[in-house]
Amino acid sequence: MSFLAEIKTKKKNEWLEWGKAIIIAILIALFLRTFIFATSIVEGESMGPTLQDGERVIFNKLVYLIDEPDRGDIVIIQRPTKNYVKRVIGLPGETVEIKDGELLINGERYIQNFLTEEAKLQTNNYGPVTIPDENYFVMGDNRAISKDSRNGLGLILESEIIGKSEIIIFPISEWERTK
């Protein structure tokens, strides 16, 4: 084989290796996006101040296949017309009530460290309501304007919760884990 033929063969092999690497990277990214992680854009002010309108979050799709939502988790709820970002407040079998700005779960006061004092005071009385099996009670952190289990979304089926918000990725200045 001539010197030029060897160089052409090496270049061709190099391009094939690069092509394989790119295809594998794309397939891994598609797998991760489809089955493990995805992004969602926060629309509106209902999760403020925790999450702001226009922020993009990465959510974990795998976590609730091996575990169940827990109180305080910020979850992505899939509905036919749009997805919602809300916080899990009540779990299956619990009784939720809001009285004079205080959240009561099974009659006991629950401390909401993620809320501002103003948000607590703007929360209207609600309930009590007992949550059926396989359902969750969710609310936005900006209680005064949030469409949630109290006023429009109703109780959320476990199957409608498609992931747990993990990290704010946009804007870059806001990069942090969601709490």
TrEMBL record:
Primary location group: membrane
Top EC group: hydrolase
Catalytic activity: Cleavage of hydrophobic, N-terminal signal or leader sequences from secreted and periplasmic proteins
Membrane topology: Single-pass type II membrane protein
Transmembrane segments: 21-42
Protein name (record): Signal peptidase I
Gene3D superfamilies referenced in this protein's UniProt entry, alphabetically: Umud Fragment, subunit A
Active site: S46, K86
Enzyme nomenclature, EC number: 3.4.21.89
GO cellular component: plasma membrane
Gene coding for it: lepB
Short name of one Pfam family: Peptidase_S26
Keywords: Cell membrane, Hydrolase, Membrane, Protease, Transmembrane, Transmembrane helix
Protein family according to the UniProt entry: Belongs to the peptidase S26 family.
Compartment(s): Cell membrane; Membrane
Lineage summary: Bacteria, Bacillati, Bacillota, Bacilli, Bacillales
GO biological process entries: signal peptide processing
Record-linked PANTHER family: CHLOROPLAST PROCESSING PEPTIDASE, SIGNAL PEPTIDASE I
NCBIfam families according to UniProt: sigpep_I_bact (TIGR02227)
Domain Peptidase S26, chain residue ranges per copy: 15-169
